[in-house]
Write a structure and sequence with these properties.
Length: about 325
């Protein structure tokens, strides 16, 4: 496994360069299989786990199924101190009797953040969260309120680093400026959808060149570092298999050509398209931490093969040019 540091100063810590997404663990991935995947990830040196307070609601779950499974597994294995746990707040249903949609998200008000963070602590069975994200940007709540609420959790020791997901770049910049005004730690991580294919202009925010450029500008004196994490890197299998459908927000002819080149490159270098995609993300000029959620140990073993796959410059140039 390889590792990198996220955060700044005494709040910084090391994480594995591959993050295990546990969204479906305990629901569509049964508990026995979920725990076997987690065991293998830790055995391989993985340390970074990603969950949320709303996962599997759309599959009939209660929202914290993944947190509950992780909590039970960590307690049984005694591995909490080896791990860095990230969870999210803000996109759980405000009204459980209404359809799950952004119109029904709980939002990022101060009371919600405090309540839901402490519930995550309870469900995970831990005394602190290494990383707490706002799951979606909430433009109906003043940034000052959201930033202050995250800062309060950090001051009390319940949260180490904070982050934001599914957000426009200018909102990240504004939130970090607000944190400086309040004297609280700024967002240290931003998590967006990211893949070798690229989105249509009308899509909700993905990792963009401007986002990567901004992240690269941080980490120096007076500029706390900002790490970029990318979810959905394999587009639910569509990069590897045509029968998985098209590419969600990246459903356009450019993606068809780009995936064709990806698969050609993978064959030529003796890797899989999934491994090449993850290596392309992790080894970029501005590295991105992929969040990937394999549903079997065999799938995980394939993805672990990307960690030490260093793409030659000419291969990366060819992928970038497609």
């Amino acid at each position: 496994m390889r590792y990198r540091t996220i955060g700044t100063g005494d709040r910084a810590f090391e994480v594995s360069t591959l993050c295990l997404g546990t969204m479906n663990y305990g629901t569509t991935v049964d508990p026995v299989t979920s725990e076997a995947i987690l065991d293998r990830f830790v055995e391989a040196g993985g340390t970074f786990l990603d969950t949320a307070n709303n996962y599997a609601v759309w599959h009939g779950g209660h929202g914290r199924d993944s947190e509950d499974l992780l909590g039970g597994w960590m307690a049984a294995r005694g591995v909490r101190d080896q791990l860095r746990i990230a969870t999210k707040v803000g996109a759980a249903p405000r009204d459980p009797d209404r359809p799950f949609s952004p119109a029904n998200f709980e939002g990022l008000g101060a009371e919600t953040i405090a309540r839901e963070a402490h519930e995550s602590l309870r469900h995970l069975g831990v005394d602190h969260l290494d990383l707490l994200y706002g799951h979606f940007d909430d433009r109906d709540t003043p940034l000052a309120e959201t930033v202050g609420a995250f800062g309060k959790l950090q001051a009390e020791g319940s949260v180490g680093l904070t982050g934001i997901s599914n957000v426009a770049l200018w909102r990240v910049v504004e939130a970090r400026a607000e944190a400086e005004r309040q004297g609280v730690p700024p967002y240290a991580v931003v998590q967006q959808q990211h893949s070798y294919v690229y989105p249509r202009p009308t899509s909700r925010p993905w990792v963009s060149r401007d986002m990567l450029d901004y992240a690269a500008s941080t980490g120096g004196p007076g500029r706390p570092s900002l790490a970029v994490v990318g979810y959905g890197p394999l587009q639910a299998g569509a990069l590897m298999r045509d029968d998985k459908g098209r590419y969600h927000d990246a459903d356009h002819p450019g993606s068809v050509h780009r995936v064709r080149v990806l698969r050609e490159v993978a064959r030529e270098i003796g890797a899989t398209p999934a491994q090449v995609t993850l290596a392309w993300m992790m080894g970029g000029e501005v590295p991105v931490i992929p969040v990937t959620g394999p549903s079997s140990v065999e799938q995980l073993d394939e993805l672990l093969g990307a960690v030490h796959l260093d793409l030659p410059d000419e291969v990366r140039d060819r992928l970038d040019a497609a």
